[in-house]
Amino acid sequence: MADVTQTITQTADKFLQQLGIEAEVTVDFQKDEQLYQVNLKCTDPGVLIGHHGETLSAMQLILGQHLKAQTGEWLNLSVNVNDYRQRREQTLFLLADNTVEQVLATGQAHSLPPMPANERRIIHLHLA
Prior knowledge:
Layout: H1 2-19, E1 24-30, E2 35-41, H2 45-49, H3 54-71, E3 77-81, H4 84-106, H5 117-127
Parallel strand pairs: 2-3
Antiparallel strand pairs: 1-2
Helix pairs in contact: 1-3, 4-5
């Protein structure tokens, strides 16, 4: 596991260097979820996050594909920049709660804006 963590760190470092972005990379393994949490800290997180995390999700996919080529197996990864994912999750919780209040107050159906599958899942789990 230490070797995998080191491989992830080195691959992420190299990827960021090729992009010309300076960031501190740390990798934590969450045993209960079998998840490698790749945490990036940088001074300009917007470049890595993109609009609603689209660039971040793309980077996660590319990093995962590179690691698959290196290790021969798919690794369950989650890439996070300056705790963006936690802040986005809180925003989604507020959106869901406000929508529920609006529906209960008016009695009319309300739809949420289009969002990626992982964000829809967060809303569904929160409301369940």
